[in-house]
Structures are given as structure tokens and as C-alpha cells.
Design goal:
GO terms for molecular function: purine nucleosidase activity. By secondary structure, the chain is of the alpha/beta class. Helices cover 36% and strands 25% of the residues. 21% of the residues are buried. The mean pLDDT is 93.
């Protein structure tokens, strides 16, 4: 049985590699991605996530943009 995941990420270089590995894993079913600032801004994280989904063979994977600053 595949593990169902929603991945919260700030896809700079490190998370990008991890996402590619997850896209290819037969043990994981990714239900969607949420993005947050971190290594890059939230806007860049969302753009990166959408691009990674496209080139990683998951162009229809939902991507939700998160907060642009820490929650208070």
C-alpha cells in the first residue's frame, strides 16, 4: 500500500531533489504540495514547485501557496 502524503516545502535546491525522488517512489502517493518561505520566498517556492511538478511528470498535482511570513 502506498503512503499518501501532502508535502510542505520551500523548494530550493535541497527540497527539489527530495521532491524528484518522491515523484519517482513507488511507495509514495503525493496528494499535493504546499509552499512556504524558507530558502526562497513563498512566491519563488510556489513557482519552483509548479515547475518541478511539470518537469517531474506530475503536472496536475495540486500546489497551494502558503504564508509569506512566520505565523504570529
Amino acid at each position: 500500500k502506498r503512503e499518501k502524503l501532502i508535502i510542505d516545502t520551500d523548494p530550493g535546491i535541497d527540497d527539489s531533489l527530495a521532491l524528484f525522488m518522491a515523484f519517482q517512489s513507488p511507495d509514495i502517493e503525493i496528494l499535493g504540495l504546499t509552499t512556504i518561505f524558507g530558502n526562497v520566498s513563498t512566491v519563488d517556492a510556489t513557482r519552483n514547485a509548479l515547475f518541478l511538478c511539470e518537469i517531474g511528470g506530475c503536472p496536475d498535482l495540486p500546489v497551494a501557496e502558503g504564508s509569506h511570513e512566520p505565523l504570529k
